[in-house]
Specification:
The complex is a heterodimer. By secondary structure, chain A is α/β, with parallel strands linked by helices. In chain A, about 45% of the residues lie in helices and about 20% in strands. Chain A is built from 11 helices and 14 strands. In chain A, the strands form 3 sheets. Chain A has a 6-stranded parallel beta sheet with strand order 11-10-9-12-13-14, sandwiched between helices. In chain A, strands 3, 4, 6, 7 and 8 form a 5-stranded antiparallel beta sheet that branches. A 3-stranded antiparallel beta sheet of chain A has the order 1-2-5, with no helix packed on it. In chain A, α2 crosses α11, α5 runs parallel beside α6 and α5 packs parallel to α10. By secondary structure, chain B is mainly α. Chain B has a domain of about 90 residues. Chain B starts with a helix and ends in a 14-residue tail after the last helix. The relative contact order of chain B is 0.06. The chains are: A alpha/beta, B mainly alpha. Chains A and B meet through α2, α5, α6, β11 and α7 of A and α1, α2, α4 and α8 of B.
């Protein structure tokens, strides 16, 4: 009898302690985080989570977690309802139940405090942009550094006109949700104005149906604003396919059949970038490329005559149109970059100083 | 009105999209999700019809004008029509048959069979061309015409040597140096470009939301 009692006492495990429940911050509600301190007994193999809604008599099982866990998120809590939780430690032979936690209520938040740095950064950048856009209204001769790829657009289009060959414009392979595609379409508008003015045939094959629709409207408007609405035909801008390599094959076919004198490869590109650029180079066309896809830039730099690198793609429509407000935004882009570079240098300096100071005291 | 309406919609949805990033509340997130997913899907479905209309029209014009290699346009149109008929009426694969018979004996031509046996190999063939194009691009890049090309050549040469056993034989620190080029100067320049790209994305988005950039409305950039 005594030996049994001793064995029972020896086997008894301690329950988990400090069970606490609280609403998960910065979320859309429905989540309560439960934390506890582990049972000191090494024979514990798992924990079972129990939940009780205020007013309901029964405890319901939420789930099981391993012996090393100290946290569980209840993602099925109703917003505004009060819940309390219990954690049961289980060993192969017995269980030990914790005290219930305090009541917790799940709620949705109207502001995510984790995004504070992003909010401050956005506010600063918006301020810089608005300042320069406003300044551009007064000072209409803002200086923008030269971008050689864009300086040669006229020359490239002039060459196509002299040779009596078409100009090919590929607006990338991404959707309209990609800002690089929107930037490319803005440049397409400027290029289309010039081809309309010079009477150079333009070919714009598309891989996305929405981009095709927008591109068609842009080219149509450009031809109208250039005073050549009659020169716009439905087969200038067309949809090809949404399959990546089928599109590459189609564009390669256009390059070899139509022999465009000038190729614009501007927008978002993927593995097909080199296939397009090399085929264009083989046909002897002047090629102006532009992308913010860092992995594709080396291919374009190698195979094309001029390449708009990263941010230059976004400055292009302002550069070509010379519209003061757009130039103001481009200027703001440069100053914002200077601010970021300054902050990086400052942070590096502070990190160095902190390191030196700490080492001195060690 | 024709211009003010889209500009107003862009302004309101642009501001809403920015607000949704900072507000986790379900009321905002659910509306944001409707814009990002449902509305976009509906527009994509309609624009696909325009896309198919465009491809048909484009090839009909080529056939009509007897343009260069106009015969291939027939192949495109017949292929499009057959694939559409099989896709809509013939079922997806042998386990999910449609109302049309899509096999002759043991030879099946369901839409999945067509995709796996025609589209995939053709796409793979195009992708394989990259190997040849890389060689020709490398030849062009490695001619060392100017300082930049010479630097590119030198960096690529060191990296290639660092990746093969011969590199270690030449100098035991060469693989580590190649690794350093990749991890430090290469990553630094990539990040520099990305900073500019993100600012460009921010600037373009702001210009569109504020209605300064109107190129997407047609007629080129600017007001």
């Amino acid at each position: 009898m005594l030996s049994c009692l001793v064995a029972l006492l020896l086997c008894s495990i301690s329950p988990p302690g400090n069970v606490a429940a609280r609403d998960v911050p910065n979320d859309e509600g429905g989540n309560i985080s439960v934390t506890w301190t582990r049972s000191p007994d090494t024979s514990v193999t798992s924990y079972r989570l129990l939940r009780q809604s205020e007013g309901a008599g029964e405890w319901e099982t939420l789930g099981f977690v391993g012996r090393l866990a100290t946290q569980y998120t209840d993602d099925a809590a109703a917003n505004g309802r009060r819940y309390q939780y219990r954690v049961i430690a289980a060993s192969p032979v017995e269980t030990a139940e914790s005290e219930p936690s305090e009541f917790a209520v799940a709620s949705a938040q109207w502001y995510d405090t984790d995004t504070l740095p992003a909010l401050v950064g956005t506010a600063i950048l918006v301020f810089v942009f608005l300042y320069f856009i406003n300044r551009a209204k007064r000072d209409r001769n803002l200086f923008i550094r030269r971008i050689s790829g864009l300086d040669h657009v006229e020359e490239a289009l002039g060459r196509a006109t002299e040779m009596g060959r078409p100009t090919l414009y590929v607006p990338g392979l991404s959707s309209i949700a990609d800002v690089a595609t929107i930037a490319s379409l803005n440049i397409l508008g400027e290029v289309a104005k010039r081809t309309a003015k010079y009477g150079t045939p333009l070919i714009v094959p598309n891989t996305d149906p929405i981009v095709y629709t927008v591109a068609r409207e842009i080219v149509k408007e450009s031809y109208t604003s250039a005073g050549r609405p009659d020169a716009f035909t439905q087969d200038i801008v067309f949809f090809v396919t949404d399959q990546q390599f089928a599109y590459a094959a189609a564009v390669d076919g256009i390059m070899t059949r139509e022999k465009p004198a000038t190729n614009f490869l501007i927008g978002m590109f993927f593995a097909e970038s080199l296939i397009l650029a090399e085929t264009g180079a083989a046909t002897g066309a002047i090629q102006i490329a532009g992308t913010d896809a860092v992995a594709q830039l080396p291919f374009f730099i190698t195979a094309c005559d001029y390449t708009l690198i990263g941010e230059e793609l976004y400055a292009a429509s302002a550069y070509l149109s010379r519209e003061p407000l757009l130039l103001g935004a481009t200027k703001a882009q440069d100053y914002s970059k200077a601010i970021i570079v300054g902050l990086i240098l400052l942070a590096t300096l502070l990190a160095l100083v902190a390191n030196v100071s700490v080492n001195r005291f060690l | 009105m024709q211009r003010k309406l889209p500009l107003t919609i862009v302004l309101l949805t642009g501001i809403f999209g920015a607000v949704a990033f900072f507000v986790p509340h379900g009321a905002i997130r659910s509306v944001d999700s409707v814009f990002r997913n449902d509305v976009q899907r509906i527009i994509a479905a309609f624009s696909l019809v325009l896309g198919v209309g465009s491809i048909v029209q484009h090839h009909l014009i080529k056939i009509q004008r007897k343009a260069t290699f106009w015969q291939y346009s027939w192949i495109t149109l017949i292929g499009l029509l057959l694939t559409a008929i099989i896709g809509v009426f013939g079922g997806i694969d042998p386990n999910r048959p449609g109302i049309l018979p899509t096999h002759i004996g043991s030879f099946s031509f369901h839409i999945q069979t067509i995709y796996s046996n025609m589209m995939v190999p053709l796409a793979a063939t195009m992708f394989s061309l990259l190997a040849f194009f890389m060689s020709s691009a490398a030849y062009r890049a490695f001619r060392a015409r100017n300082l930049e090309a010479t630097l590119l050549l030198a960096a690529a040469f060191i990296l290639m040597l660092g990746a093969v056993p011969l590199g270690r034989t030449i100098h035991r620190e060469l693989p580590a140096f190649a690794e350093w080029i990749l991890a430090v100067p290469n990553t630094a320049s990539k990040r520099g470009i990305l900073f500019g790209v993100e600012l460009g994305v921010f600037a373009t988005s702001l210009k569109i939301v504020l209605g300064i950039e109107r190129g997407w409305l047609g007629g080129g950039g600017g007001k």
